[in-house]
Amino acid sequence: MFARRLYFFAIAMTVLAAVVVARLVDIQIVHAAYYENLADRLLTQTVINLRPPRGDIVDRDGRILVSDEPTWDIGVKYDVIAGRREYLLSVARQMKQDGRLPGALSESDAADRLQLDVAEMWRLLTTLPGESAESIADRCTAIVSRVERIRDDRERRTGIVERIREEEWFHTVVASINDDLALKLRLDVENRWPWLAIIPSSRRVAHDVDSMVHLIGRLGAASPERIDKDPLANDELRCLKADDVCGISGAELLGETVLRGRRGQVVRDFGRREIERSEPQRGGLLRLSIDSDLQTFAFEALKEGVDASENPSGGSVVVIDAATREVLALVGYPTYSYERYREEYEALARDTRWTPLLFRPVQGQYPPGSTCKAVTLIGGLVDGVITPETRIHCTGHLLPKDTTHFRCWIYNQHNLTHDLMYPNGQNAEEAIRNSCNIYFFKVGEKLGPERLCEWFRTCGMGRVTGSGLIEETDAIVPDAAYLQKSQGRGHQPADAWNFAIGQGEVTATPLQSANFAATIATGHTAPVRLVMNDGFTPDAAKDYPITALNPAALHTLRAGMWRVVNEAHGTGDYAKLATPGYVLCGKTGSAQTVPRVLNHDFIFDWPDGRRETIRAVNEADAAAALHRAHPELEAPATPPADGTVATPPKRPRLVGKFAADRFPDIGPEDKLPSHAWFIGFTQSADTPRGDPPRGRVYAISVLIEFGGSGGHVASPVAKKVMEHLLSRDSGAQ
Amino acid sequence: MSEAPRVFDLTRLGWGVALPVLFLICVGLASIRATDRAEALADAETQGHVAAPPTFLAKAINLIGERTSKQILYTLSGFVLFAAVLRVGYRRIGRFSYWIYAVVVALLLLLVIDRYLVDLPFIPEKRLTHRWIQFGGFTLQPSEFMKLALVLALAHYLRFRSSYRTWTGLIPPFLLTLAPMFLILKQPDLGTLLMLLPVLFAILFVAGAKRSHLATIIALGLATLPVFYIAGMHDYQKQRVEVLLRQYSGDEQWHKGPGYQLRQSKIALGTGGVRGLGWGQGAFVEFGLLPEDQNDFIFAIIGNQWGFIGCCLVILAYIAIVVVGLEVATVTNDPYGRLLAVGIVAMIVAQALLNMCMTIGLAPITGMPLPFVSSGGSSLWTNMIALGLLVSVARLRPLLIARQPFQHDEE
User: Fold this and answer.
1) Any CB–CB contact under 8 A between B57 and chain A?
2) A1 touches chain B (CB under 8 A)
3) What is the pLDDT of residue A433?
4) Nearest 5°: CA angle at A305, between A504 and A336?
């Protein structure tokens, strides 16, 4: 039996060996060619990617707004960044061999000498403009931790512990130095200090774009999500890879597929000989519809308008070519510095007084106020609740016994009613001209809130305009579903009054408002166009419904809007153009709003009953301030080593927050502040009143936050911008 | 037995195991030497600084290659161990079986203590495992010695018994095996741990444990595998199983990540073809493209350089060890020697087969050297001592006037 079992054992081992041999036959004989092929493809070559320059962003006339410019980076050898003495020893040996260091010097002494040079180099780098010891040290720490992460990854993956490529590299310690400095460094120290290299590089340079930093947008590191969802993922040479930069906001993001270049590749064999090389190709031009001259002018005009207003806070001007819906100007104020964004970001993000990071024309949501009466009028006329000749009395206040709510602006300001001028009441045109609240309360009441919301939507509100900008918001059309979700209620009768004059929950962006003005001019809704490149249509624009509006209703509306601006004492008569041959038709708005909350009082309760209040712009800042005030909170919450139960650290609990400072700083009894609006369109002076506009038709929206009266504050800005645009020889066409 | 035998006075059977082993050692050294060159070059390029002025020894080491010189040193000391074991004889060593077992278990216990209780200075943590004991310049891996110690202990325990033909009788041998397995599990070192099982089963099977018992145990073990996979395995261990299952996946990212090692190994074998690229030839050797090419994956380098033919010769050498080793077991009358021979053969060959299987993508990758071929001291010494015992069994054939041991009635 023993012998038989041994025999079995031997057979079992041999069978296993036979399996191994069979598998070897499969790999080494049957599939040898397959593995040969794999080896050729994978083993004998390494590929180095060459980063392509990004394409330029230009305006409609081809003026360059941002571009990749060649520049120089200062690179330092990784060993020196990581502070490895072995590297200095090897440099010392080499320098002794070359005779650059005296041969009598011992290697260790020579390395000490080089160490002094290294220290000198770090000192030199910290004295460069815009650099400090901290900034350099931070960057070095980041480089070291990144390289070590790569090495650890590799070690975990393959089990190899050895120097990786990144440890042989020069890493950029100071980016984008100017040519003079680069030349000086090359001559002075590059030879003397073999661990320093001046590396050709590129950087994104903005050319006089103060008025459109939001629109241009920013570049940032490609996040894993972006890499996953990259539309060019299938193109080996154009897809995003980790370590790449890509557009993360504004036009840089919108035009990412156009702007991104095609990388070049250097293919090398394992002897580091170059086998193949393809040069990187610069990305394409992204041509915006923006007219940068107009944009700059509008920015300056807006700035003046905002600064002169009673509560300077910010504003927006949008100009659209009504026929093509090309956006000629998309201006927000205030902005920030393109170049210093990184350094100033913390301050910018906390500036709740001016909110400079808000891309107002597309991101800002404002109650549209009286500009919305245009929608109410169209709705009322088309639904037949009024005719153009229906006359409605202005009684000053809507509710007979309540003189404090639902009042006409004229009653509000002058304690008068429109009936003084129009004893028989106003018809549609006159109501638009005078922006009579009572008239539109009553029209809105007849339409009802549900129907009004439908009309808002029909006119293009409550949806992005199709610019494709990621910043753009839908704004709010407060239909029943929205109110249910946000406030848990359905429509109420008073909603109709509010919505009819653009108050209550309804909001619009300046771009939507300008596009609505263009819709009034052309008679149909359409998406705006921000990028002029052929075939470039954002998804949002593809889905945008194109609806023709009732021509008769528009006729009445346009006639009213003509009278707003061009008749003496029209609500927008400050906007009357001085340009010969052209007139502006428009609608003003003064949209009541609540002040902006600048910061909150955060209330913290301590376990022992103490209460502490900290004023900060957000909860994180409040917590940080609390920790600064009480360093003992920083103590680590590790359990004591002696095994006793850890006493829970006495931490204060956030129990509430209250709005603290507001802008504008009004008292509880004061009148609410108003945003000043103007929307309108130009037409040649010979256009019969109310007819579809002729000549060059530009739509405009002007918004001045907390500016007060639209007629007095926003209209002059619109006038200035339109006069500039119309009188300019080059024009936009 | 009266005249003291000379050390290398081997019998025919003794040579029969020693020659294949010599062949394997030579193949191993040649492969290590081939892959050493690339490393020496790479070092000179990147590091480029040897602090001391080159002595004769340093020059010699540089010429031969650092790892190769080390391996030569291990091999020579291995021969000394082999000779010493042969000189003492397996029977005298066998008396201390339990003691040896106890000492190695104590060493394993030290490693576990280091991991869970006190940080001992002579036990370094490498890649999150505690497997090595360090004495100055060199390291010992007690789990390698455990395999042999287990063979000794099992053979010693079972030699005069037949109790293992009952269920309860199987408990002590299993306890002897499971105790060190548990300790090794805590290092953790899954590969070495699993190598204790073939030893146990081979010895029990050959000694005549009931087939139904063994089959039941194996079946039970296999049945718990899925549970073990889900509950007992770390993510990186699961990933190794996944590497095996996904080796034909078209996902290039996978092959650049976790599947890298296995695919490199198969490419090395595949490019070797039938005849191989020749000693020291090809990109794998030149540029060190196969990680662990001197240790766990040396078989792939052998296949790369000497092709299918080289691989088959190596396999033949192991089969020779099986055949001759079992012949040794048959010929000897000493029950202890028998079990010892079987255990040693099982220990060496099972490990060799598993190592090859993982190299060619038939088994999950677990760190485990190819016996006599891979670089590394502990493994080689263990195997050389084992070889010494085996040859010693082959040489000392006590004449017993008794019935042949382990002649049970077939169940």
Assistant:
1) no
2) yes
3) 93
4) 90
